[in-house]
Fold:
Amino acid sequence: MSKTLARLAGMAVQAAVLGYLLFIAVMRMVAVESGATVFRYQGF
Amino acid sequence: MRLLAGVISTQNPPIIPPTPTPTQAGNPVRIFLKALVTPSWGSVLGTLLVAAALLAACVLLVTPQRLARVDVGYLLQDARDDFAYISWRAFRIVEAGPQPAAVALLGASSMLHGITSDADVAGVIRERTGKRVAIHDLTAGGLSPWEGASLMDRIGADFDGVIVLGIGAELLATPPSELEGLRRHPRLAFRSSVFDEELRIAGMEPIPATGNYFIDNSQFFTARIGTIGRLVTGPIEHSRHTDWRKSLDAKTWRFQVDRVSEWIRVGYPANAQANFDVLGRLIARARARGEVRVALLVTPINPRALAEFDPGVDERFMADARAFAAASGVELWRLDEEAALRENEFDDWCHLGNNDGRVRYTRALANRVARLGDFSQAPGDSL
Structure:
């Protein structure tokens, strides 16, 4: 039982980290594709 | 030999695979670590589910109402992320509900750098009227007339009080190509029917909306996706007057003044009327929704730059501004002399970089606002 739980916990942590990174990567790709940027006023 | 071989073979034990001990393969920690780094269908599925869940959470949970309740420092890309800051402030104003009287300050960077803080404006008004008045400072570097209209639309449902609109020849020279740029790449964190209306008036088609806040404003959020790390590192502070420009040397000064002069020389005759019209519609909408008094504030200009500009440009701008103010029934303020702004108090042609100058300018502005506004309904000092 504890072996199964340990294996599932390892997979869950791996999925959480990779899922977070995948989410960030997708958002960044959407930003690049749409041309979204944070405006910084530089004056004339 | 055969017998000897048999003896030898019986002396060597057969090769048996080692039996895992409970402290090795059967150790839950080892199993956990192995599962952590080993690809599996389970972890692939989990990865996709986690990414989808985060996206779904954004789509379902990110709303202006929720953003208004979080610390703005979680939203800011950096300390000078003015558009995230004023968007958040607009959400907060809406969430705070109707105020008996308030002051909205709308303008670009020269106005932003001319005012010390909204608390200082409120303090002077309180000195003069004995009333506590909410000051909504919605100034941002490069704020366009169309974004000003959007902000006023956002906060204007129950807005009663004074609106101060920062104007200048360079602002009124803004070409419609800027509006097209804002259509494709919005800077504020919300869409506005007023902005869409301004697009149609300018002959442009608004981008269709889905009705979902996060999706419709996805550029704002995807551009700032790195701020998600603030959930771990904590929020940052917005810095209104971070030094963003050092004093200009002679060559840079010449370049900048020539560039501004050219921008105004080309853009003002072509675009001023259309931009005055945008301001006129902003004022008309605000009056239709609440009891408002409006003032146009000619934002600070370095006296040295004013002397170097073509004098005809400023004369024409001021004549147009007076005519617009008279036709619209609004006040027109130019406070540079009243605040005794000096050349050495500016960082460049229009941005005050000196706090003494800002303090005098803020006081001059707040005095005018106190005189203009009807704050009789605002709570007094005793509350």
